[in-house]
């Protein structure tokens, strides 16, 4: 059963999908229907250690660095328009194989060159982030973080966070991810 989240919402992914070991984080949006440059939303993944710091530069995965050195986090490619059905960009995460001192993975979403293109999330239609259990058939979403943005001229990024806490149990059982949707603060 899929759970939809709104701003500030939380859900325990392991309660929704017990035994969760591998997920795909999908990003989707609709093609621009007005005049102007296409919207190029970009999904990224940042692995964070238990001290709250980025695990390493190589653990910042995005369109120009498509996988971590151990291949536990892999970006599948860059869609520059939102064209096509389903997820426009995806990041695969092997939760069971993550290093034990990775505490969480943050999935920021941004609009490429938003300032120069005068674009923001208030202009993008049907943007979403979803987390899919790779073991589920037919890969139905565990949770979807949707944002129906109100026009906010400076909002050009947002994030969905999955937390994989370490524990004393086996690696495949240690992941207890949580997801939440957050919007960045903007100045007036």
Describe the overall structure:
The chain is mainly beta and 188 residues long. The protein is built from 3 helices and 14 strands. The chain has helices at residues 13-16, 114-117, 171-174; strands at 3-5, 11-12, 22-28, 41-43, 45-49, 60-61, 73-75, 89-94, 102-111, 128-133, 141-146, 157-163, 178-179, 181-182. A 6-stranded mixed sheet has the order 1-11-10-3-8-7, with no helix packed on it. Strands 4, 5, 6, 9, 12 and 14 form a 6-stranded antiparallel sheet that branches.
Question: How would you describe this structure in keywords?
Answer:
six-stranded antiparallel β-sheet; mainly beta; 3 helices; disordered C terminus; 188 residues; 14 strands; six-stranded mixed β-sheet
Topology, please?
Elements: E1 3-5, E2 11-12, H1 13-16, E3 22-28, E4 41-43, E5 45-49, E6 60-61, E7 73-75, E8 89-94, E9 102-111, H2 114-117, E10 128-133, E11 141-146, E12 157-163, H3 171-174, E13 178-179, E14 181-182
Parallel strand pairs: 1-11
Antiparallel strand pairs: 2-13, 3-8, 3-10, 4-9, 5-6, 5-9, 7-8, 9-12, 10-11, 12-14
Task: Provide a brief overview of the structure.
6% of the residues lie in helices and 34% in strands.
